[in-house]
Amino acid sequence: MNITFKVRCLAFLVILFFTKNAAFAQIPNGYYDSAAGLAGADLKTALYDIIKNPTFWQGKYFNARSFFEVADLTPDGYIWDMYSSTRIRKWDGNVLNREHNMPKSWFGVTSGNEDLYSIGCDYNNLYPSEKTANGKKSNYPLGEVNSSPSFDNGVVKVGKSRIAISGYNGNVFEPADEYKGDFARNYMYMVTCYEDYASKWTTSYGMTMLLYNNTYPVFTQYATNLLMTWHRNDPVSQKEKDRNEVVFEYQGNRNPFVDHPEYAEYIWGGQANNPSVNAGKFSVKYVAENKKLQLTLTNAEIAEYEIYSISGIKIMSGIKIQSSEEQSSEENTIDCSGLPRGLYVVSVYAKNPNCKYTAKFVML
Fold first, then answer.
1. Domain boundary residue among 213, 241, 267?
2. For residue 129, how far is the Cα from the chain centroid?
3. Domain contains 20
4. What's the domain count of the chain?
5. Which residues contact 55 (CB under 8 A, 6 or more apart)?
6. Is 16 part of a structural domain of the chain?
7. Is the separation of the CB atoms in 302 and 333 below 8 Å?
8. What is the value of pTM for the model shown?
9. How far apart are CA 207 and CA 138, in angstroms?
10. How much is the average pLDDT of 69-79?
11. How far apart are CA 300 and CA 6, in angstroms?
C-alpha cells in the first residue's frame, strides 16, 4: 500500500542515492508506463509483459554464489541470510545453499537442472540459506506456525499452522517478521513474471493451498490473505531496494512489487477493481537561510509528515495538505529552526494515491 523513495538532501542540493552499488540508480524512465491506469488481471498481465524473459545464461544458477556476494550483503559486510543468523563474509558451500524462496519443485525444476530453465535460476527467487534451515524448509507452503514448532532457529520456523487450513494439515514454513514482506513480494513476482507457467504449476500437496492453475488471481484466498498481510505489515526495506537494483543489472528485469508496492493492492487487495494511479514525484529541499524544509510532491496530496532523528526517535509531526505542483507556499514548508545541527529523516504520508515517501536532510 505504501511506496517509498529515499532522497538525501545536502544544503541546497538534492542528491539521490538509491543503492549502495550504483549512484543515481533508479527505475528507468517509462519502465512501468504500460501498466498505468490498470487493475486486477489486466495490471498483472501488463507487468508480466514488462518483466518477462529475464536474461538467462548457462551457469547462472551455479554462479549465484558470486551474485550473493554483491546483492546480499549486510551493511557490515556479511552475507545476508534470511533463513538463519549465520554470519560469514564469503560464500561457503559447506555452510550455505542456493535456495529458491518459492520451491523449485512447484514449477517442475529438479536438482541439477536449474540452469535449463530461466525460472530455475531467476535471481529474484534465489537467496543464500544456511543448509540446515534450507533442509527443514523443504518445499512446505508459507504459513504461520503454532506454538509448538518442529524447527525454530530463532529466524525461521517449521511446524503445523496456527490456523486451520481447509484440505491441508501438513507443515508450513514461517520466515521472521522482518522478512515476511520480502517473501510475499517474492511470490508476487514469481506468479507475475512467470504468468505463462499458470498451467504448469505442479499439484503437490502443499502448493495447492497457495496456488491455482490460472493466471489470475493465481493465489488461493488463504494465500491472498496471508501474503497481503505480510506485504502490508512489513513494507519494502532498503535491503530489497538495493537488491532489486543489482538484480536489474544482472538479468535486466525488476520486481514491480518492490518498486511499486501499491501494485499488490491493485491486483490482489482492496483496489483490485479500481484503475491504478502512478505515484507522484517527491523531493525535499532544506533552505538554510530560514531553516525550513520545503516539500515538493506532484500527483498526490500531502497528508501527514513526521521527522525523526537518525537514530529513529520521532522529533516532530504535523499535517501539510497541498495538491498543486508548485508547492511554494507556507503550506508546504516545515519550520525546523528548533532542531540542532545534524542528519534527520522526514517521512511524508500522502493520499490519493496512498503512498509513503522518506527523505534524509541535513540541518546546518
1. 267
2. 18
3. no
4. 2
5. 250, 251, 252, 253
6. no
7. no
8. 0.73
9. 12
10. 96
11. 17
